[in-house]
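The authors assume throughout that readers already know how a fold can be written as discrete tokens. In essence, backbone conformation is discretised, so a fold becomes a row of integers matching the chain in length. A single example would do more here than another paragraph of explanation. For illustration, here is how one protein appears when written out as sequence plus structure tokens:

…
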Amino acid sequence: MAAAASLAARARPLSRPNPAVGAIVVRERKIVGRGWTQPGGRPHAETQALEQAGEGAKGATLYVTLEPCAHDSTRGPTCANLVAISGLTRVVIGCEDPDPRTAGHGIARIRAAGIATETRVSTEAETSLVGYFKARREGRPLVTLKLALSLDGCIALASGESQWITGEEARAHCHAMRAKSDAILVGRETLLRDDPKLDVRLPGLAGRSPERWVLTSRDAPEGWRALPHPEAVSDMSDVQYLFVEGGARTAASFLKAGLVDQLLIYRAPIVIGGGLPGIADIGLASLADAHGHWRLSDRRQLGSDSVELYERNPCSPE
């Protein structure tokens, strides 16, 4: 299942509006078919894996990160039906699909065909689909707030100079994170001051540059889309992964609204002193209110810089 989840990562974010799914067909301990959701959502991962396996699917096991779809579509047959007639003897499903058109129906269709079917919540599968589940269950994208900070928590000198706080390796990592996002957002002040491109400048990944959004009550300039306020993220059609890059007031507005799911913090081994803070006032009444919201889920070194990923604790208040 972990291998299927790694395949799913190749589909993100090009599979939108469909979820990024990975599938592997295994027969006699050998992989005979692999697949992941293709750009625009079709073909699905199961279709690809079964086509690649061909006759090798007979008597084999399919590992798929998400329950095979069961709803009719003009774009092709349902994956549950394809699996049902494939000759597979076993199917292992990482996560059930919350989409009411499929939820439980795909599993039932496969079992009705006499195929042994296991459903288990897989950590790897769940993680690979976290944006899709957020959109389905809560009606909004997964929001990652990115900050590039000095050791003393500044994003720029007092003059506003910010290029570059972090080094090349950290910036390349950030571009890779952009490539996994459907949309990227900055505040109006950042747009006017920096005129950022917000594209992906990594070899072979330029085509994965996300949609550009700006937090503003006014119309967005050409090539940009406007978000009037953080709560309007629920209106961002088809966006499963939103990457928020700045600045301080935009970061504060999303945090204050309880809409940040992940904090991605790049730290450079420098001290600025008297610079611009990474986050503006979020209106905490007491220090106690700041505790218990976040847990560190990953940390790594990127040259002389480091990157930390914090996730919101499930029990923390929104």
Observations:
- Residues 287 and 293 are 12 Å apart (CA to CA).
